[in-house]
Amino acid sequence: MSEATATRREAGDTTSVAAGFGATVVLALLSGVTAWPLVNGESAGTQVKLLWIGWVAFASMGGAAWVGARVPRRRARVLVWGYGLASGAMITSASVFLLPQAINQSAAFGGFGIALGLLVGYSGHAMGHRLSHLDVPGDRAILELTAHAFSAGLIIGVIYGNVPELGLLLGLSIVSHKGPAGYAAANRYVARGGDWRAVLLPAAGVGITALGASFVALPTDAAVRGVVFGFAAGVFVHVATDFLPRCELGSEIHDALAVDGDAHALLDRLRTHAVVSTTLGGVAVFLAWLVVA
After folding, report:
1. Number of neighbouring beta carbons within 10 Å of residue 226
2. How far is CA 141 from CA 132, 182, 196, 205, in A?
3. What tens digit of pLDDT does each residue of 141-165 get?
4. Based on the structure, what is the number of domains in the chain?
5. Range of the structural domain that residue 209 is part of
6. What is the spatial distance between Cα 95 and Cα 27, in angstroms, rounded to a whole number?
């Protein structure tokens, strides 16, 4: 690495860390403004739910990033269980809480919205890899995480703002993947000489955009609402399937194997863990729904 490249990377890392602290301060200020009506005895049910979701996302991603920065190498089993539990919970929650909302609004337009969300989710994921070929300021992985976090917060805010009866379970399931994502991102970032605190930017992004987007009122037209709710369901199903632990040669799980030995045999054992973890993630949402219902 040339001296100029090293200097530029260090400057980018400093900027990313500063942005992370700045986003944390913004989230704290927004939280104070949002919680103020409660001090005066006013009702703020939807915003309180979004506060919980935003801070759980921040704590899980930031906390996991702190752990990932101190682990010398990613642990394959940790990734399998983190990704598996999160993806199982997200798939179940999107299927139970968002898909019916879309179809109940308009079966046809809700279906088109689901398809649109899946296609946009795939397109965004595929095009995001083009950042690796562009000369962009800051770390590419942190920028991708930040864009994803702000997009997720936008969708969560609009959905909760327009369907205030939605419970916390949906939002918490959706942001459950922030933990394993923060762990893996910080581990890779620190290995390249970065500072894990840069992950605070995407960690705070969900809460910031969710609180702001909750004031966006959708039209009452059933077709529009069907497309919006279907789009949200499609995007989150895509994200969830993207987080399904893939125990194949050359996959992230394979690259994270921390012991030597027969890779095929190790991956076979991890596949069992992947099936169990994703199943438990879905079952956990079902059991939580039974308790809440």
Report:
1. 24
2. 9, 11, 12, 15
3. 788 888 889 999 999 999 999 988 8
4. 1
5. 3-292
6. 29
Which residue, among 180, 292, 198, 195, has the nearest Cα to 240 in the 3D structure? 180
Q: How far apart are CA 148 and CA 154, in angstroms?
A: 10
Contact assessment for residue 58 and residue 31, using Cβ atoms and an 8 Å cutoff = no
Separation of alpha carbons 82 and 177, rounded Å: 7
pLDDT value at position 2? 47
Radius of gyration over every alpha carbon of the chain, rounded to an integer in angstroms? 20
- Rounded to whole angstroms, the maximal C-alpha distance in the chain is 63
Cα 196 to Cα 65: distance, rounded to the nearest angstrom: 6
Q: Which two tokens stand for residue 130?
A: 């083009």
User: In the numeric block, which tokens belong to residue 116?
Assistant: 């649109």
Residues 99-135 have pLDDT tens digits of: 999 999 999 999 999 999 999 988 887 776 665 555 5
Would you say 53 and 168 are in contact if contact means Cβ atoms under 8 Å apart? yes
Give pLDDT tens digits for 201-260.
999 999 999 998 988 888 889 999 999 999 999 999 999 998 899 888 777 787 777 555
* H helices present in the chain, as ranges: 3-39, 45-70, 76-93, 99-105, 107-128, 140-162, 168-174, 178-191, 200-213, 222-242, 252-255, 263-292
